[in-house]
Amino acid sequence: MSDTISAIRETAKKLLEEGKVDLIIGFENGTLPSRSSPCFIRKPADVEKLVWNSNCENNLAKYLPGRKEKVVGIIANGCGSRAIVGLIQEKQVDREKLVILGVPCEGMTDRNSGLLDETCKTCQHPNPVIYDFLIGDKVKENENSDPYAAVKEFGKKGTEERWEYITGELSRCIRCYACRNSCPFCYCRECFVDSTKPQWIGKTVNETDTQFFHMVRALHLAGRCVSCGACERACPMGIDLRVLNKKLEEE
To answer: Helix, strand, coil: what percent of the chain each, to 5?
Structure first.
């Protein structure tokens, strides 16, 4: 891991010194133990802050849409790079204004259990799918894994049982929008939940408003979600967002 960090810092420093990028988006050590935080490096001397470890769980592609810098460098693992591809396809990011430092990923740690994150267990492509610089050796791909394994048992339940589970999970939602704010594909300038003309949804945490928010968001993500797990990790209430997103994607 130390070799990877050294290579990231060396590459980032060179890009900044040569003026090939105006900004590097990466990770630094967080203020809490076993946590890493997104960081934004503009000076070569600051690259020593950059780290890479199993706590670098945010999807940094979230910070790309709407940037004003001429050229941005970004550290991307498998799911981060897939999100970048999606943003390029949706014309939210200009590929020519990106320098991608691809980092093969061995998975993120679930901060609650200390084990491998559930999302990472079914990740088929942990290696970056697009990059300008590859930092470190590629890891083994898992193309034979079932991306819908997490919803197989859920799919076997009856209609009423499935609905009971979903409504039970969503009943804990406090409408903080952490799931939306962590998702690289929630880049709309005005989310439908914030619209007032027309007003699509109430601002309360009653059952109807909460369910409507999550159902519409899941529908918006169907076919776009890269299964990075950022939304579920960001949720302070521990809601099983993946089962809704993956089941709708499977359908």
So the answer is: 40, 10, 50
